[in-house]
Amino acid sequence: MDAFETLYRKSSGKVYRYLLSLTGSQERAEELTAETFYRAYLHIDRFQGRSSVDTWLFSIAKNVWRTEQRRAGRFTDLPEDFPEERDPLSGVEDHDNAMRIHQALHRLPEPYREVFSLRVFGELSFADIGELFGKSDSWARVTFYRARCKLKEEST
């Protein structure tokens, strides 16, 4: 097994979950995940190691999603750990509840939606999220906390 295949096996699930949170469609998320890894394969020589590989992949995934949004004419520009609270996504046991939470997630304004998705679905650290936005890890923590609060308000 080569290094890129190992990378794909390790990170494709995280990238897929992140794109699923952005698209709301399993089919689109699968297609965009494939496109993300295709672009990563083509441009692996550009990865300079200044960030984690996952951060680099999520950056590519975000750009793939933005490109799709622009082509479809649906683009909305993408414009903070605190005390532990019950995560709004914990306990999702049935399809109706999951759909309600995903709908609330899609109503979140940016950057809350993307930061929440990167943290929960992409499993990125706050440092990596901050780096993607050109902000600090503290900014990412505060934004994530606020997103959780907004989701909690909408889901109750």
Describe the structure.
With 156 residues, this protein is mainly α. The chain has 7 helices and no strands. The chain has helices at 3-23, 26-42, 53-72, 95-107, 112-120, 126-133, 137-155. Helix 1 packs across helix 5 (112-120) and helix 3 crosses helix 6.
Features:
156 residues; mainly alpha; 7 helices; globular
Describe the structure concisely for a colleague:
It contains seven helices and no strands. It has helices at residues 3-23, 26-42, 53-72, 95-107, 112-120, 126-133, 137-155. The longest helix has 21 residues, at 3-23.
Please render the helix and strand layout as text:
Elements: H1 3-23, H2 26-42, H3 53-72, H4 95-107, H5 112-120, H6 126-133, H7 137-155
Helix pairs in contact: 1-2, 1-3, 1-5, 2-3, 3-6, 5-7, 6-7
Distance between the termini: 47 Å
Shape: globular
Mean pLDDT: 78
Main pleated sheet: none
